[in-house]
Each structure stands twice: as C-alpha cells, then as structure tokens.
C-alpha cells in the first residue's frame, strides 16, 4: 500500500475586522494586525471539506516551504496575558514577549493513524437465508386468522360455572360376554412365524394361541425401501466478495495549528461476484420389498354369547346369568348414568357417569346436588347438596 501525504491549510475569520478566509499561516490578521485568538472561534479552522467516497480533501495541498515548516511546528498555544496564538515550538509570546505558562491554553494535535491497522477491512461475505424467516411469519399470521374463531368458541365452551340442581333419574346397564378359545386360520410373514403348539385355557386362564401348520407360502409385497439411484448435480447461484482493483482512501488529522495532515492509501476494493455453487447429491428411488406370506393355524378368543341387564332408578344393579364350559371365559362391562337438571329451574339437562358401583349406589334419585358444569354442558364435578 503506497502512502501519499499532503498538508492541507485551513482558513480562519478575523472577528476584529470581519475579514474572512485568512490562511492559517497568518497568526495575525493581515488587514487589522490583531492576533488570532481562542475566543470568537478564530481558531476553529475551515479545511474546505472532503470527498464523501474517498475522504480526500477537496482543497489543494500546500507546497510552500514556509507553510510546511509552520505546519510541523506543533499545536498552537495561546498567551495567558494577551491571548495571541503562538507556534507550538516557541516559548515566548510573539505578540507581547510573555513566557508560555503552565495554564496557557493550547490546541490539540490529533494522533497519527496507525500503519498496522488498515483504513478499511475487507467486507465480510454476505449471509443468505433471510427470506425464510419472512415466509414463516406470513404463514403464522394466516394460521392465526383462520383458526381464531374456533379457538374462541373452544375457550367459551370449556369455561365452567358452579350451580345447583337435582338428580332426577339413575340408570345402569350390565353386560356379560361369553368368549371361547376358537381355532382360526391367519396370514403372517414367514420370518415372524415360529411353530409352537397351542395350550387350552382352564377356567378361562393360562392359554397360549400357538402357531401350527405353516403352509401355502407365496411371495408378497411387504413394503418398500429407499435405494440410492445414482447422483445428480445440483447448482445454485451465489454471491461472494472478490478483490477488484484498488480504490483511494484518505484520512486527515488536525495538527492543532490550522493545518491538516492527509494520508491517502490505495486499498483493495471488493466487488460482488456471482458464481455457480454445485455439488453432487445422491438420488433415491423406492424399491418394493417382497417376503414369503403364509397361512397358519392358531386360536383366538371369539364372542359366542352375550347377556344384558339394565335397570332404572331404585333398582339395584345385578349381573346377568350365563352358563359356560370350562374352556370359555367371561368378560364383564358395567355402565352407570346419573341424569341431572340444573339452571333456570331445571331447564338444562346433563348426565354424569360414575365409574364404580359403589359410587353409583351413593346417589339417590330426587336428591339435590351442586354442579360444576361447562358452557357446553359437561358436568365436571357433582356433589350432594
Ligand atoms: Zn482583522
Ligand atoms: Zn502575549
């Protein structure tokens, strides 16, 4: 990186005689001979601006030996007695001959830029995948609109309230199923079938279905599997940063005496370059899988008879009677319902289902009750009142 240094001279305005644009090399006004002071912004210099893109000063650089020597003399200081500005390398006030004192005010010379740190770091590669988030957001929004009606109804119907009512009627139903261990022929995959003799139940217990007479095996489709079927080349266009020549970048530092030092360098310029990003992806296809499917003999519990009994308010629940052989088994189901009227003098009706006979028997038709019920009419809690 080649480095080019220029000295830019600022200008100031005399507040005593109102002369504008006096070159910084003059520490006294060329018109009225008044010294440049700290007051009245006389020592705030105008350097004529810089180019926005490069930072390069728009003004010509100084080549004049005297001015260059002045620029290198350090930051100005202001005489504590007469206020005149003086060269940084002088110890006596040029205007009144007073000595530079500790409390004399001075301008600041900015630190020189560090050569180790480039003026501009190369830009980072641009990141992709920004559009994905937007798409998800839009979908989320429409989902909310389409379902909010249902959601509100759902919230209303599950809201509960406590009220009082009356148990008007009770009901029970009991069913007994008679099941027999019955020979059947089933189909199964050969590799999953293991021949085994059946064991008959005794009093409906201890049975084993068994697998017998595996036969008539034929090849059948069992499913499919994914298999690699070559590769395909997948490409997408991406962008990356690429060095494309150089560009000039300048920095200035104030020397605190009406001069600026400008350092310009040629730095690498980066441009967007599009390129094809390609890779080989494995292609897959579905392949059918076949296996041997066979018939075999086994046993299953089959319903051979059922009896049902039901009763209304007051009648105690009973089990139906069934006669059975020793290899059969019985399966029992019981079902209890309480009918409740509540709200508006019993205009609303709902049912409640006790789980056990004991719970069912604790309720008497006609008794007053407290109900916790949803707007949709489901009884959540039922208590005697
Ligand atoms: Zn003047
Ligand atoms: Zn002085």
From TrEMBL:
Classification via InterPro entries: Znf_RanBP2 (IPR001876)
Transmembrane segments: 135-156
Keyword Cell cycle applies: no
UniProt cross-references to PROSITE patterns, sorted A to Z: ZF_RANBP2_1, ZF_RANBP2_2
Region annotated Disordered, chain positions: 106-126, 308-327
Domain RanBP2-type: residue ranges: 72-102
Gene Ontology molecular functions: zinc ion binding
Superkingdom of origin organism: Bacteria
Keywords: Membrane, Metal-binding, Transmembrane, Transmembrane helix, Zinc, Zinc-finger
Protein name: RanBP2-type domain-containing protein
Species name: Stigmatella aurantiaca (strain DW4/3-1)
């Amino acid at each position: 990186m080649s480095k080019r240094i220029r000295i830019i001279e600022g200008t100031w305005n005399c507040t005593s005689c109102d002369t504008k644009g006096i070159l910084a090399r003059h520490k006294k006004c060329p018109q009225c001979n008044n010294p440049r002071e700290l007051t009245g912004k006389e020592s705030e210099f105008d350097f004529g601006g810089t180019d926005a893109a490069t930072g390069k000063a728009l003004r010509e650089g100084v080549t004049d030996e005297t001015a260059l020597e002045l620029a290198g003399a350090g930051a100005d200081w202001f005489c504590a007695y007469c206020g005149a500005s003086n060269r940084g390398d002088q110890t006596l006030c040029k205007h009144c001959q007073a000595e530079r004192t500790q409390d004399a005010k001075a301008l600041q010379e900015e630190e020189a830029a560090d050569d180790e740190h480039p003026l501009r770091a190369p830009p980072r590669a641009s990141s992709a995948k920004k559009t994905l988030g937007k798409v998800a957001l839009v979908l989320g929004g429409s989902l909310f609109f389409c379902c909010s009606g249902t959601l509100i109804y759902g919230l209303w119907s599950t809201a509960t309230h406590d009220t009082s009512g009356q148990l008007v009627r009770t009901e029970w139903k009991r069913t007994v199923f008679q099941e027999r261990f019955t020979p059947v022929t089933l189909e199964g995959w050969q590799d999953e079938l293991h021949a085994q003799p059946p064991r008959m139940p005794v009093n409906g217990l201890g049975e084993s279905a068994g697998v017998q007479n595996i036969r008539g095996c034929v090849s059948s489709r069992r499913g499919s599997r994914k298999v690699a079927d070559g590769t395909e080349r997948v490409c997408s266009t991406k962008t990356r940063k690429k060095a494309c020549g150089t560009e000039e970048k300048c920095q200035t530092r104030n020397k605190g005496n009406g001069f600026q030092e400008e350092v310009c360098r040629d730095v690498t310029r980066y441009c967007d370059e599009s390129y094809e990003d390609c890779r080989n992806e494995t292609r897959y296809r579905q392949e059918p899988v076949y296996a041997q499917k066979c018939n075999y003999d086994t046993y299953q519990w089959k319903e051979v008879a059922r009896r049902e009994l039901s009763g209304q308010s007051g009648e105690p629940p009973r089990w139906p009677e069934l006669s059975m052989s020793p290899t059969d088994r019985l399966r029992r189901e019981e079902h209890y319902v309480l009918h409740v009227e509540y709200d508006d003098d019993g205009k609303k009706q709902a049912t409640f289902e006790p789980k056990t006979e004991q719970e069912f028997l604790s309720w008497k038709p006609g008794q007053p009750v407290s109900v916790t019920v949803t707007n949709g009419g489901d009884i959540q809690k039922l208590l005697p009142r």
